[in-house]
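Note to self: keep these together.
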Amino acid sequence: MRSRRVHKALRRLKRRLPTGPPFDRTLDYLSAWNRLEYRPNVRSPRSLNELFLASKHGFKGDMALARRVTDKVEFKEWLAETPKWCQLIVPTLGVFDSLERCERRIFDRDTILKPTHMSGPVLIFDQTRTLFDDEKKRIRRWLRTDYYRRSREPNYKGIRKRLILEPVLFDKTGEPARDFKFLMVRGHCLFVQVDHDRFGEHAQQFYSPDWNLLGFAQAYPRHPEPIDRPAQLDAALDAASALARSFPLCRVDLYLLPDGAIKAGEITLFPHAGAEPFTPPEADLELGRKARALMPD
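Structure:
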């Protein structure tokens, strides 16, 4: 069983210890060991988590580009530089460096607010309510957070702390659109992760690129009922491959909308920091084997 005491101790150490490769790698390694419940082999990675951890520790790509696509504002600017990718851009309603500057814009329509320099946190608003005090505190906390220090992911180092406001993207039922996350290895899709009810009872599914439901889970419970193959799947696979071309190992997050449109959410270079167990555990090794087969020696 993972130790919460160790997890809390490592979080405190991340806040207190200096940043830089020796400290980052040591803290990463200890955190992964605690969370995965096996001692990760970064020098000769075999599992998928080990591959991401090794990529994080010895990143060989263009770090300036990695930081650019990590920043949620600059990611859209990067997409806009390639004409055929412009259609993938989620509209931006505003970019702000303080809560006060964005507060009056939040309720113009159904909106989603995100920190540009972090991974995960979001707030969704509709036009029927005001901003609660606890939400204001959370947003101000976002703007104080050094996510690089917290995550020790080098691509977050130096990213400007801002807020980005976007319209909510909806599925055909009127709920926020699902995330379709394409795990890419050298431009090839290893699997597609589908997140269900992300802002409620979060569950996940994993599919093969040809849309067979796979029998493992990670981070959240496995949603038992398969969904239909998306009409845009082939186009989404092509888009994910194109967006991932600069990164040998990454995840490309897309939204597949009811009108047939595809929108890009983000490129994630180190999903779960290479430290999220699979259920069953054997899936980690099997996915690592398949990923290594797609990589050059």
